[in-house]
């Protein structure tokens, strides 16, 4: 694997220097309580900087040896790049920040065309995020809120693909119709190997199609429940698609951190990975899906 530089919130880090596990789809600070056209949700936020810092620090110092977090809170989701930099510095866990335009209820793009939206992403990638000097290292999470992407969401996805092609950054998606989102990105010429498809469905067949397209199936242990996630993960491994699998915890609201009784960022390590071991998954495969695959996804376009 080539030794390239990853853009983290505290500066460039050599990919080869990341030795521990990678959480490729997390939220460390987010606020999605209010949106347009859907019900507000008072629990759809996370602003517990000291708590999150402590959880990441503990994971780094534990046997889990957390080595990197990819933070997918982008435009429209309450992103706070300065807070991410403080969390990374306090926990000593490198954090990659993101750019991108999330689903329509949270992102007021109006009738802006693809060129304008692409320019907005390029400005953040080139000049930094929110005037902080933090440079995004990933585009995402981009996607859709409903069953199908709306025309505005499709324009945001196309803009993400075009910005990725210009900058060689990876892309992460989120949405119910994962295959439709992937199809839009691939239709712009973006290689599947540079896309992590956030998959929250229970259909193993759809997950297989994502992997067969060369993209990564990104599973969150908090999403469907760890048994359902384990079923999808084990099915992909059994089918020979282990190299296309990413796993994360997927914390996205305050009730999920340990301080308020939630499982915290350790949920992946405490629940899903032991379940995969019980099913006979070897340590080499667990290393593949928790370290090698996410690093490959992040660096595929940079080599």
UniProtKB/TrEMBL annotation:
Pfam families xref list: PTE
Tagged with keyword Hydrolase: yes
Recorded GO MF terms: hydrolase activity; zinc ion binding
Superkingdom of the organism of origin: Bacteria
SUPFAM superfamilies, per database record: Metallo-dependent hydrolases (SSF51556)
Keywords: Hydrolase, Metal-binding
Family: Belongs to the metallo-dependent hydrolases superfamily. Phosphotriesterase family.
Protein name stated in the entry: Phosphotriesterase-related protein
Provenance organism: Nonomuraea fuscirosea
